[in-house]
Specification:
Layout (H helix, E strand, L loop, with lengths): L8 H7 L2 E9 L7 E2 L5 E3 L2 H6 L1 H5 L2 H5 L4 E9 L1 H5 L2 H8 L2
Antiparallel strand pairs: 1-2, 1-3, 1-4
Length: about 100
């Protein structure tokens, strides 16, 4: 189940990383990839994110993409960490 982008960042940081499912449009060789304009869904675990990859490849954004190759990837979502107060980051890094 996707997690809302508005989740309290302190709770997210303490619970561990989030994984973002993104779509990339690539050349035939699989290089020169560009992130597609599509809503980013975040998940609590990499396994949950990976389960959603096939559905993401069947989405409108993927099917309309003007690229010969479209791929879905799960990456650690850093926005929650970037928004975490520095004081909280310092505390967590000492643990």
């Amino acid at each position: 189940m996707p997690i809302s982008e508005t989740v309290d960042t302190q709770e997210v940081f303490m619970a561990g990383p989030l994984f973002a499912l993104i779509l990339l449009g690539c050349t035939d060789a699989g290089d020169g990839c560009t992130r597609l304009e599509a809503p980013v869904q975040t998940y609590e675990t990499r396994a949950e994110c990976e389960k959603r990859q096939e559905a993401a490849l069947q989405s409108d954004a993927s099917l309309r993409a003007d690229y010969p190759v479209v791929t879905a990837q799960c990456r650690i979502h850093t926005a929650a960490r970037a928004k975490t107060p520095k004081r909280l980051l310092a505390l967590s890094e000492t643990r």
